[in-house]
């Protein structure tokens, strides 16, 4: 299918003369009526000529074109289809086989301590299907038996947690739960762009990003049950059960807000094995590494733990040779997913520019889109509901006139923070970092319609 | 895994002495602090005794219990796990194999004109995973080639639609789109209950219900492009491309609100084949049969079409022998999904009663829950965001004292409409109907903890 997906994806082929020059100008008029007139006229000229022949050829005309010849009907309009499911689990269409998560060849030395990127360029709305959720493992993934899994809660000393506890999955799932939509982004997402390496597609630049409805028990409730002394216990260590011994510090302020969840559910069902089944920590707004998978232990202490993944990794190298630590919060960011790198505009005319925006500090307030490399901006439409620490889908009408274009999006969150340009980001942080790149992304549309990833600021 | 799922599902086994009689009384105190104290005390008595042994046995204690013996660690805490995905599409855990959609044996004569029910008792939040979305086919399902699929828009006469059009999928996907969360419910959902047949589980009583984020083009935009005369064109016929020749009338009022979508996306990816890939009509609030799958044609006319599925089927048989037609809107309804029929409460003590509520007229305003067959009610917590014509997840703390209980939920929508009891519904509609049963559902908890579907009103 010719819809945007994967490196070989391409944008849709329009009828000839899809859009006149006069029509192109109309799209810049504001207001829905102007847009509808613009789109209608654009289609009318071309559509009227192809409507009947196309319908007849496909045998899809059953109305005013007379009785269709039964022999011309496709098989699915004549025959008996497949039966309802009696077992198993539904799968996507065979025609969508190219929509997959993909690792980046050579990015990591092993495929167990590696990444598989979500195909953002092929996704709609804000929910990431769990079968396409990005993967990031430190020592491979496991399908852990939930009947044997335990979650322990203890203190760094006995005054901090009065009643250390161990929960079975069944005990956890019996407790009051919440369900919330949140994005999860790896701190290293868009990491290769620091070195001016223009990774070809949106999947590889921004695909360590997903969004789900998570269900689980607020961690605060479990800490209350264990009798935490919150005057002493100001930090929590989350520990995973896989061989990577992943441990991360979470400040108690986040937990006291009630936002941190010990989650077992994702998009209506149990977590997937590659994303921590049966239990993971959900820390909204914070980088993915803190969302500890296969969560087996929560320790409450009086200071940050300085774990290996907080000292050796996930730190920000600064221009002077120092590094910043505990910069776990994902700042406001956005990316245009269509048109994006690797796609091809097969004809000039109307397109709906669309993409995703998010902020670890709350809701997205505004997204501006430029098609001229940031010289001028127009406000995009934000799809509702706009939720806190969740992806927000934006879109903007655009008529491509066939000339080169530089497409960008720039998000602003409810705190007023504005997503920086590469120039602004590098002025503060240099170019030797790996993590926490939230700069404006630029896609270049060539005269041949090919879309490429380009770095504007050297 | 012993979590609620499927007919063989059972509720979780709690530690012994999970809850004292004094603790049980506490749950009826209002306020979060009271609830937390109640839960903490309930766990403290039992938990302290089992915490350390359980942790040691599983090798999950790595904190204050000293260095664990490496030989006691489970394999997944020592070895190298599986690699990141290089192709394919992620699947649920092997331990979740019992969470499936299921047909009801003997319900239909063929498996192509049949139903497979969603496992509501195993789902969390509001999103239904597309692999578990209920199925309802009239002549089987197909995996239609999107490159050959067309959508035609025409009028019942040429004055109503000035420019009949045919769209390819590529052309449709180039247009402005919206993404919205909506429930879909078959008009026959809960149909067997009319005849006092107590279907055993929630999956079979209410499982023709699902909820997704749908993405597509507002139908109004397509009609605008085709130049519809809205003074003449007051009804639309949606026609599917499969062999069942499914056609349904949709009043223009719904379309003019901008809510009706020609959808290609579901939960972030393309529609699934069994749910209409590549194109289905989304008619929020209206019964599922109107959400025409494999949508190939929209005809605009000046009167309802009286199609076979509007005259022979999907009509409401009334007590006097007459039937009601065009009662397509799904009225406010709710169901408790846990505890529900087929599940077993293995011990007295704390449970979180949870379920789903929805209304075809807008948002759910309130859900009340009874554990004594409707003699007394308590207000449930509604999970946010509460969206229009979308599922709403509700929950309520409950301590089971070991005595028989009758669990019910009763939803009220934003119009003030209150979900009726069976007695109220039958007083108006008799007992010979199939469709549009939105009565309060009752689950009976026996002294042995077994949960059964019971009919209170004969």
Characterization of the model:
- The structure is a homodimer of 458-residue chains.
- With 458 residues, chain A is α+β, with helices and mostly antiparallel strands.
- Chain A is built from eight helices and 23 strands.
- A five-stranded mixed beta sheet of chain A has the order 4-3-12-7-8. In chain A, strands 5, 6, 9, 10 and 11 form a five-stranded antiparallel beta sheet that branches.
- At the A-B interface, helix 2, strand 1, strand 2, strand 3 and strand 4 of A face helix 2, strand 1, strand 2, strand 3 and strand 4 of B.
Task: Give a short summary of the structure.
2 copies of one chain form a homodimer. Chain A contains 8 helices and 23 strands.
Please outline the helices and strands.
Two copies of one chain form a homodimer.
Chain A: H1 21-26, H2 32-58, E1 115-116, E2 135-136, E3 150-155, E4 165-168, H3 169-173, E5 178-185, H4 202-206, E6 209-218, H5 219-225, E7 235-240, E8 247-251, H6 252-256, E9 261-266, E10 269-270, E11 280-282, E12 295-301, H7 308-311, E13 316-317, E14 323-324, E15 333-338, E16 349-358, E17 364-370, E18 378-379, E19 381-382, E20 392-400, E21 405-413, H8 422-429, E22 442-445, E23 451-453
Parallel strand pairs in A: 3-12
Antiparallel strand pairs in A: 1-2, 3-4, 5-6, 6-9, 7-8, 7-12, 9-10, 9-11, 13-14, 15-16, 16-20, 17-18, 17-21, 19-20, 21-22, 22-23
């Amino acid at each position: 299918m010719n819809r945007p997906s994967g490196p070989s994806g391409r944008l849709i082929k329009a009828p000839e003369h899809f859009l006149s020059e006069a029509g192109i100008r109309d799209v810049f008029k504001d207001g829905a009526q102007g847009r509808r007139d613009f789109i209608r006229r654009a289609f009318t000229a071309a559509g009227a000529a192809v409507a009947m022949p196309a319908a007849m050829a496909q045998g899809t005309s059953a109305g005013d074109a007379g009785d269709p010849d039964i022999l011309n009907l496709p098989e699915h309009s004549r025959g008996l289809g497949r039966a309802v499911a009696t077992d198993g689990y539904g799968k996507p269409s065979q025609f969508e086989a190219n929509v997959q998560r993909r690792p980046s060849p050579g990015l990591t030395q092993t495929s167990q301590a590696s990444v598989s990127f979500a195909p953002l360029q092929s996704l709609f709305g804000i929910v990431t299907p769990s079968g396409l959720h990005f993967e990031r493992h430190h020592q491979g993934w496991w399908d852990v038996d939930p009947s044997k899994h335990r979650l322990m809660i203890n203190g760094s000393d006995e005054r901090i947690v009065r009643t250390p506890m161990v929960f079975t999955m069944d005990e956890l799932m019996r407790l009051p739960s919440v369900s919330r939509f949140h994005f999860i982004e790896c701190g290293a997402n868009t990491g290769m762009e620091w070195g001016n390496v223009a990774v070809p597609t949106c999947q590889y630049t921004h695909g360590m990003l997903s969004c789900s409805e998570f269900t689980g028990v607020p961690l605060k409730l479990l800490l209350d049950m264990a009798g935490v002394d919150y005057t002493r216990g100001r930090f929590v260590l989350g520990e995973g059960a896989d061989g990577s011994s992943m441990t991360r510090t979470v400040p108690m302020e986040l937990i006291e807000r009630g936002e941190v969840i010990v989650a077992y559910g994702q998009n209506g069902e149990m977590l997937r094995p590659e994303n921590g089944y049966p239990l993971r920590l959900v820390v909204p707004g914070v980088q993915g590494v803190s969302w500890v998978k296969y969560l087996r232990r929560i320790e409450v202490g009086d200071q940050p733990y300085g774990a290996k993944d907080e000292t050796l990794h996930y730190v920000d190298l600064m221009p002077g040779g120092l590094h910043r630590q505990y910069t776990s919060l994902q700042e406001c960011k956005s990316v245009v997913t269509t048109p994006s790198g690797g796609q091809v505009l097969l004809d000039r005319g109307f397109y709906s520019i669309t993409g995703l925006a998010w902020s670890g500090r709350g809701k997205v307030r505004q997204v501006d889109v430029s098609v001229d490399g940031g010289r001028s901006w127009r406000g995009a439409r934000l799809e509702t509901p706009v939720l806190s620490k969740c992806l927000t889908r934006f879109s903007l009408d655009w008529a491509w006139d066939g000339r080169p274009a530089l497409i960008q999006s720039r998000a602003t969150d409810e705190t007023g923070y504005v997503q920086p340009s590469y120039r602004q980001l590098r002025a503060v942080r240099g170019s030797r970092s790996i993590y926490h790149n939230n700069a404006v992304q630029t896609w270049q549309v060539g005269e041949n319609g090919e879309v490429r990833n380009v770095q504007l600021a050297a």
